[in-house]
Write a structure and sequence with these properties.
- The protein is built from 12 helices and 8 strands.
- Helix 2 (52-58) crosses helix 3 and helix 6 (144-154) packs across helix 7.
- It has helices at residues 12-32, 52-58, 67-78, 98-104, 119-136, 144-154, 156-162, 169-182, 198-206, 229-238, 248-251, 321-326; strands spanning 39-42, 186-188, 255-256, 268-271, 283-289, 292-295, 304-307, 313-319.
- By secondary structure, the protein is α+β, with helices and mostly antiparallel strands.
Length: 333
Amino acid sequence: MRKFWVASGVGIGLCMSFVALLVVGTYTAAASLGGAGRSAGLAKGAVPAAYQPLVQKWGNLCPAISPALLAAQLYQESGWNPRAQSHAAAQGIAQFIPGTWATHGVDGDGDGDRDVWDPADAIPSAASYDCELAKYVKDVPGDRTANMLAAYNAGAYRVIRAGGVPAIRETQNYVKIITTLSKSFEAPVGKVPASRQAAGAIYYAQKKLGTPYLWGGDGTSADGGRFDCSGLTKAAYASVGIELPRVANDQYNAGSHPDRDELMPGDLVFFSDDLTDSRAIRHVGLYVGGGYMINAPYTGAVIRFDKIDTPDYFGATRVTEDGAKALPTANAG
């Protein structure tokens, strides 16, 4: 649910015509844009404010990593949960198992101890461990970051023996997932390519205009065809073959983040009471252009058009198929 600061005054008939034009225009724009520019730095709010200085500092520890790559690993491992613990006894925000922590944990904050549950130690330790692995495989041909990630997953010996990323499906997938996911933490410095599936997602959502809101609704027959905000955006992109996580704050990581003045129809737009932390996002809509979105706003309302320019506007995501596939399924709920 989100608060609405500005009431929508747009008639449904007018907006339906408007969206029809935008659906055609989206495909045209997608065909005309070139590739994405190189990215640098962290996207606004992508890393929770409590950890952003640590990720920014330690993500520059060595050339094989970056703040965005380190952020992607931490998000993949724990979803930014400093108390996370797996069935395999991996612990903390960086999910170190006790044996690895005993060897590679560092006192990142200089307080005299090494605490796996303290992000001020665990985040520097994750960066330090990455850089140590990069040193082990520094003479291996190929991309040094890919080799480092492969060593993290499969062990340095296998990377050295294979002369690069080994032909192990799990390892190859891990390398692709982290490098893809890192793009959702980068601040783009060039144009973000338009989504090929954006028009289809809008087409789906506009057919749901007027449908009553249901908290937790996924549009199923059991839900009476009703949706909540993230249920609608999930279903809209599922209609074009892209599976998003269930909750809005995880949907934020399904691609790169265009600036407000670079929004295109089909982008997901997000809203939060804390503009420094993507984990606090509480509402999502589907941008249709002209400063408006289609969204399922709150109990008692219907799926409708609303303005996006409100004080709680957080940012946007240009959804990609690879970006959605890279998201950890454990974070979808």
